[in-house]
Amino acid sequence: MDAGAFTSGLLTGLREGVEAALIVAIICAYLTKTGNARFFSNVFLGASLAVILSAVLGLALYATVGSFQPPYEQLFEAATLLVAAGVVTWMLFWMRRQAASVRGELHSKVDRAIDGGSVAALVILAFVAVIREGIETALFLTGQAASADQAAIWVLVGAVIGLGVAALLGVGFYHGSRRLNLAIFFRWTGIALVFIAGGLVAKAIHELIEINVITIGTQTLFDVSAVLPHEDDSGSLLGQSLHALFGYTSTPEVITFVAWLAYVVVVLTLFLRPVKRVARAATESVPATVVKG
Predict the structure, then answer these.
(1) Model confidence pLDDT, tens digit, residues 154-198
(2) Rounded to an integer, what distance in angstroms lies between the CA atom of residue 132 and that of residue 54?
(3) Are 201 and 222 in contact (CB under 8 A)?
(4) 75-112 pLDDT, tens per residue?
């Protein structure tokens, strides 16, 4: 078992899965509150379709990465890694900015769907809400699996377990559990994802160096392989784990290290900045609408 790859997948599956589970739980709790629990099946149908489509997308991307011959394999892998890091970065800030108003917005959309008499609208609402997280997860896990090489299976195993735990937490959210402080959870898992995404950026730069797309700053910055090697055959569990989880390498190129450091410093600084709370949607205080059978 590759502990680093497993932990990387677990953290991603848990963090992104909790966001999706929270959205579904909010929708279901509101349907119960308004006497419309019979529409649960529509919500679960939309969410399930989003999960299936995301899984297919992830598998297709991962299969495509390994189907190219050099240098196109490295180019595609680098592009996938950069896109994954970019999407995750955008979603971190989107969730940070929208966290205060997401409940009210979802309630408003549920009301409009029910008032319009469109059962399909609830399917679409759940699908759209979950597919956003699903595509992000698929891209991020594809990047992590490509970076992990032979340990890719452990990224998947970790992700499945993380998603399973997220689903259980979603049940807890629905039943009103307050044992998990979501603000703290999203903050610390967000910080961890910044470092993981930084590793994807560094891996992408390394791939581009290998095929001579980047030729500046390619010299080795330092070599600590005697102390903490990262290679699979080195016998260093810590080095291998750091490599799989955060993209650590014992012999980084100058440009690779600079790119990693710049990404982590800039994104982490912006992510940890105090955010002005968005006013809750006014619709949250509007009386619930009940559909008559």
Answers:
(1) 889 999 999 999 899 888 888 875 565 667 777 887 888 899 889
(2) 9
(3) no
(4) 888 888 898 888 888 878 877 776 656 677 778 888 88
Residue 189: count other Cβ atoms within 10 Å of its Cβ: 18
How far apart are the C-alpha atoms of 190 and 12, rounded to whole Å? 10
pLDDT per position as a tens digit, 3-20: 778 887 888 888 888 888
Alpha-carbon span 46 to 141, nearest angstrom: 22
CB neighbour class for 46 (10 Å; exposed up to 12, middle 13-18, buried from 19): buried
Structure tokens at 140: 């991020």
Determine phi and psi for 179, rounding to 5 degrees: -75, -25
- Compute the residue count for the chain: 293
CB atoms within 10 A of CB 107: 22
- The helix/strand/coil state of 281 is coil
Dihedral angle sign, alpha carbons of residues 205, 210, 212, 218: positive
Q: Which residues contact 199 (CB under 8 A, 6 or more apart)?
A: 147, 245, 246, 247, 248, 260
Q: Which two tokens stand for residue 175?
A: 């039943």
